[in-house]
Amino acid sequence: MSSNQLLLLESDKEHDSRSRKGSPRLHSSRFANSNDHLLGLKLKKVKRKGCGRAWYQRKRVKSFFGVIGLVGFFLLVNWVMLSSLQDHGQQQKLSLVNSSISVKNELKKFGKGKRSQFGVYGRMLALAAHALAENRREPKDLWKEPVIPASAWRPCADQRNWETNGGHNGYLVVTANGGMNQQRVAVCNAVVLARLLNTTLVVPRFMYSSVWRDVSQFSDIYQEEYFINYLSPDIRIVKELPNELLSLDLEAIGSVVTDIDIPKESKPSFYLKNILPIILRNRVVHLLGFGNRLAFDPIPFQLQRLRCRCNFHALQFAPKIQQTGALLLQRLRKYAAKPGPLDNYLVGPHKDSVIKEKRVQSAKASKYLALHLRFEIDMVAHSLCEFGGGEQERRELEVFREIHFPALTLLKKTAKLPSPAELRSEGLCPLTPEESVLMLAALGFNRKTHIYVAGAQIYGGAQRLTALNTLYPYLVTKENLLSAAELEPFKNFSSQLAALDFIGCTAADAFAMTDSGSQLSSLVSGYRIYYGGGKMPTIRPNKRRLAAIFMKNSTIEWKVFEQRIRKAVRQTKHVQTRPKARSVYRYPRCKECMCPTT
């Protein structure tokens, strides 16, 4: 007997078992018995009514045919309803079985010839397929935030309470490292440093990365003139150094300071003590590889507010990104009748083009969930975790680390690091696509949910998305929604593509992250808090708690799995103010960025 036949047989047994236990579903035998009983009562009633009436005897022939007609009518109705219920029940059973068979078949195809993490979760994915096929109602709070406490804060980082800084001490040149999101953080930190050191900021430059391979500069991603003008009441910004400084060899005169020379999250006092003297001596300093090199606490109130002002107000995407971003949102929402609450901040003057000119009157706008699947090879390699690919995966990731993360490779050879199993149990591994889809199914997102997946190339390719695509067929990426011609201007520019993902995720009806340490997830969730008015929910999984649940994947029942996942995720939805020393970009609910409404 084949595996498919066994699965069908098991499904039939489970179906019969539910019937014997008093399942609320209607089955043909129960429905037929109840109708036979009802028909018997009606016949008796007819007979009782006929007793002692003379006209009954006179018209017994007509009455006889009337009774026969009544019986025939009830039998016909009974047959039609039974047929309908049997067809519905059969379709429901086939849907459940087919979903499970589909997952099983895809699982076999994916895992053929090698051990895979997908196979580890094969049992749970089959249970998820059954749960989704039942098409149960979604939980009431699935697409919501705790509105009252969440809406108790309003944006106010645009408020200023100081005089313009002339930048008289010299010039600050910054070259930011990392991808688009790391660069965004670096730009905001550079703006604060320019104010702190009373220097003129040169429009930040972006360093070429062997990982990101993108030559985009500031004006390719953001509106340069808007940035300069918006921050002019705060600091002086120029596009280039003056000619007399442009010709200097900054390294030779000791004006180049690398990220190795600046401790991570340094306090303002470090810059006043170590960087300001260089500027006063040489009139210029170049911070090379600058990134997350400024602490969040302690820092003066107005400087912290400037940080928020830069991130949430001064950085507007370039027109071509806004225009394509608006097109992306239009196709995600389909029949939207009005722009979304964040569209004005994300796509600016193109917000009205999000609405289709020719709308189908009877159609509803599509709600969509954005999922940032942080499972690119750089993240996977840097995590030092294992993801079910065996020896081949280990060799592949080790080669990538040697090329792109040589310091990490050296650390592995010289120090005893936690094992992949220990890292996973501590919640330090990124969620796999299989774990992500199990989380979404357990939370209650139904099979018809429209899902936008953000991110670059997923490690493992299209096969690694098999579980997501199988359980959620309405899954799209920017590559699905935009034509090759529409994406052509962004080809080979990963930071500009990341900006499109930023727009797609930030504007979503709900946003789910799979790695809370990701810069994109942090910036997107913070932006949704700042402008969302308490109506833009974000799912932030506690990976340590999820890891403990996933470890029981071979024995846990689906209902228990659902309960535990929902409890773990709901706790992260609690509205909280910014914890001390944590990012204002991710947690803007603090008096420097947002003001309490009461």
Describe it for me?
By secondary structure, the protein is an alpha/beta fold. It folds into four domains: 100 residues, no CATH class; 144 residues; 219 residues, Rossmann fold (3-Layer(aba) Sandwich), CATH 3.40.50.11350; 43 residues, no CATH class. β9, α22 and β10 form a beta-alpha-beta unit. α18 packs across α19. It is globular, with a radius of gyration of 31 Å. The N and C termini lie far apart (68 Å). The N terminus is likely disordered.
Search tags:
single chain; 598 residues; alpha/beta; Rossmann fold; six-stranded parallel sheet; five-stranded parallel sheet; 28 helices; globular; disordered N terminus
Number of helices: 28
Q: Looking at the structure, what is the overall shape? A: globular
Radius of gyration: 31 Å
Oligomer: single chain
Q: Helical percent range?
A: 40-55%
Question: What's this model, at a glance?
Answer:
With 598 residues, the protein is α/β, with parallel strands linked by helices. It is globular, with a radius of gyration of 31 Å.
Spell out the blueprint of helices and strands.
Elements lengths: L2 H18 L7 H23 L3 H5 L1 H52 L5 H4 L1 H12 L13 H4 L2 E3 L15 E6 L3 H17 L3 E3 L2 E2 L11 H4 L2 H7 L6 E2 L4 H4 L9 E3 L9 H7 L1 H7 L1 E7 L10 H14 L4 H15 L9 H5 L20 E5 L4 H7 L6 H15 L1 H9 L5 H6 L7 H11 L6 E5 L11 H6 L3 E2 L1 H4 L2 H4 L6 H13 L3 E4 L5 H14 L5 E2 L3 H8 L7 H13 L23 E3 L2
Parallel strand pairs: 2-3, 2-4, 2-7, 3-5, 6-7, 8-9, 8-11, 9-10, 11-12
Antiparallel strand pairs: 1-13
Helix pairs in contact: 1-4, 2-4, 4-6, 6-21, 8-14, 15-25, 17-18, 18-19, 21-28
